[in-house]
Amino acid sequence: MEFVDLIEIRELVQYQHVVAAVACLGERPMRYGELGTAISEWTGSRIADGELTRTVRRLEAGGLAEVVPGNDGHRLLKLTPEGHNRRKKAAALGKVLRDWTGDQAERETDQ
């Protein structure tokens, strides 16, 4: 493993609500309030309004999401291509971890 790999992993998982928002917005663009509800459902705990605001700012500052007009005049948050890329990387990392954990459990039962 290279040091840059660790930096990239940290970027993927540094803020749990950013990871959750990227996962949720990967399903479809959402209004601000919808995103808060989706994050709360995805994580199993309510996200505070201030944390949601910080999360949205981090998404925009990181180039992961952008605000676009919705059909009904409301503004929507939508993943950018970089956001979709981040989602794919996080999903791949999650799969590797689940596979590795499963392999570890199999080794323990074989002993």
Automatic annotation (TrEMBL):
By what name is this protein known?
Uncharacterized protein
Q: Which organism is it from?
A: Micromonospora andamanensis
